Amino acid sequence: MDVQLKRGFIEICVLAAMLRGPTYGYRLIKDVEPYMEISESTLYPILKRLESEGSVSVQSAEHNGRLRKYYTITPTGRGRIDEFLRGWQDIMKIYRFIEREASHV
Question: Which of 1.10.340.30, 3.40.50.300, 3.40.50.620, 1.10.10.10 is the CATH number of 3-103?
Fold first, then answer.
């Protein structure tokens, strides 16, 4: 899969995993892993980028004596998911065209 396309999917998956409520890095990895391979070295730069664009907010809280960052989706992040879902119909049209043409070869 194209690296840029995959990165976009990972970002949307991470945002979607936050729809359930505030969460932390390890939990995000576990929530997204069944659908896409993701590592800490991939996740944390994405979270930083999502935070800087205003798609997530971050709060630190103590957990078992350690500081843990909790990530929450913002209305901007929700808007990115909505935009992705609207655009998905166009992607599926292209996919069906390619699939149809490839089956004729």
Answer: 1.10.10.10
